[in-house]
Structure formats: C-alpha cells, structure tokens
Amino acid sequence: MLKFSIYVFVSLFIISVSPTAEARVCYDIFPLDYFRQNPQAQELTLESHRLAEQLSKTNNKAKELWLSWKIRSLHHKFSDLFPLPDDHPGPLFIWSYFYPEPFWPTLFIHGRFRARVWYLDEPRRRNLEYEWTEQGVKNVQTGEPLRGPKHWIVVIGLDRKIYLSHDIQQLPIYFCHSSFFAGMPVLFAGAIEFERDGTVSLLSNNSGHYHPSSRHLNWAATYMRSLGFKIPDSAIHPY
User: Fold this and answer.
1) Which residues contact residue 236 at a Cβ distance below 8 angstroms, ignoring those fewer than 6 apart?
2) CB count, 10 Å around CB of 74?
3) Which of 77, 175, 188, 199 is the right S-S partner for 195, CB 3.0 to 4.6 Å?
4) For residues 74 and 147, what is the distance between their CA atoms, to the nearest angstrom?
C-alpha cells in the first residue's frame, strides 16, 4: 500500500511540473523550412497532431484503430511531397503505438514510467545537424567538433541531412528518434558510435520507433560515405 501511494504521489507531482502538451507540442512544428511556403505540408502536419491528440484521449479500441490508420495515411501523403533518392528502399513511419506520444501523460503504468516525447521545431532541430569535415564530425551551425559520450542516435531526414543527439530518457520528457522530425517520416533512424578521430565504429538500424530494415541500414551507410563519413564494413551492425 505504501509503495502504491508513493507511485501515485510521484506521478501527480511530475504531471504538476510538466509543461502541457499544448504548450510543448505547438502547432507550428513543421519539419522543414519548405513547410513555410507549402500549405499542404503544413495542413498534413497539423492534422496528424490533432488526430494524435484525439487518440491519446480515447480508450475506444475501434476509434483508436481508425485514427491510427488515418494518421498513417496522412504521413504517407506527407512523404509523397518529398522526392526520395533513387536507391532508397522507402520512407520510414513511426509505429502506430507511438502516434499519441507527444500527448501522453507522465504516469507509472504497467510497472514503468511512460513519458511524453519531446518534439523539435525546425530551429531546434537545425542545432543538431552534423557533417563530415577534414577535421572530423562537426556541428553545421556552430562548427564545433562532436563531443560527449561515444553513443548517439542518428536520423537522416527527408531533407537528406544528418542529425545526431543522445537518447535522453529522463522524466518528465524523453528525447527519441521521433523527436527530430516531430513524429513524421524519415529516411533512416538508428544508432551510431564514433572513435576519437571521427571514424564510425558502429552504425545500427536500432530504432524502436521506426523499425528500419537492413536495406535502410545499407543505404544509410552508403549515403553517409558519399558525404565523407568514414564507415568501415566492420562497423555496420544490423539490429
């Protein structure tokens, strides 16, 4: 009984200090600058978030399945707005379980905490763009070399740019693969590790949100090599 009371108290406390979904997942989240001049892409993104919010507020299974299907349909329309590389196996979509994640309450459920996921807007995402230079991997905006822990999560967006961050699992908000592009489709999502000289020591298609295939992994390795990244064959690890 005491243990249960502690869980309830902590959950209520986290909810009280967490930003509201409306404040954190604003309806001006557009994954690319291109959206500013593209009303169709804007509307698809807005509709996706509206449906996800509805989905988060219902326990009706039939309605949940219908909304999941409709959101996926919107995401396919979204990806159709962007031409894919000729050799790409197809855009990646987050699994339907995660559709309402930006509106999830931070609660202790089924033995673990489930928290809202932090979705980035375009200016914040731009700060996580990286590229290969003669001096190694550097942040595109600041020119600073890659620093920090060895392990990173990586996403290649429909804009064909490389984004890196840490997989932050700290309550009340998580940062995951879906955070970069606000839950919208991407070309690749996985894990990456670097040596001190910038050489990739591990590239994996490990993403619970997007579930990329080994074909996506091989495409990502080939594409990143074309940008200058040093990726030996031994570094490629299918998940």
Assistant:
1) 203, 217, 218, 221
2) 20
3) 199
4) 37
Q: Is 105 left (phi over 0), alpha (psi -120 to 50) or beta?
A: beta
Which residues, including other chains, have CB under 8 Å from residue 212's CB and lie 6 or more apart? 92, 188, 189, 190, 205, 220
| 82-103 b/e (C-beta count within 10 Å ≥ 16 → b) | beeeeebbebbbbeeebbbbbb
pLDDT in tens, 125-182: 889 999 999 888 999 999 999 887 678 999 999 889 999 997 666 556 678 899 998 8
Q: Is the pLDDT of residue 114 over 70?
A: no
**ω before 89 within 30° of 0 (cis)?**
no
**pLDDT of amino acid 65:** 77
For the purposes of burial, counting CB atoms within 10 Å of the CB of 233, is it exposed (0-12), middle (13-18) or buried (19 or more)?
exposed
Using an 8 Å Cβ cutoff, are 92 and 185 in contact?
yes
Query: Which residue in 132, 128, 130, 89 sits closest to 231, CA to CA?
Result: 132
Burial 23-36 (b: 16+ CB within 10 A, else e): ebbeeebbbbeebe
Q: Quick one: 3 exposed, middle or buried, by C-beta within 10 A (0-12, 13-18, 19+)? A: exposed
Cβ–Cβ < 8 Å for 237, 204: yes
Q: Which of 220, 200, 202 is nearest to 155 (CA)?
A: 220
* Entry pTM: 0.80
Following DSSP, what letter does each residue of 99-127 receive, concatenated?
TTGGG---EEETTEEE-EEPPP-HHHHHT
Question: If DSSP codes are grouped into helix, strand and coil, which group holds residue 91?
Answer: coil
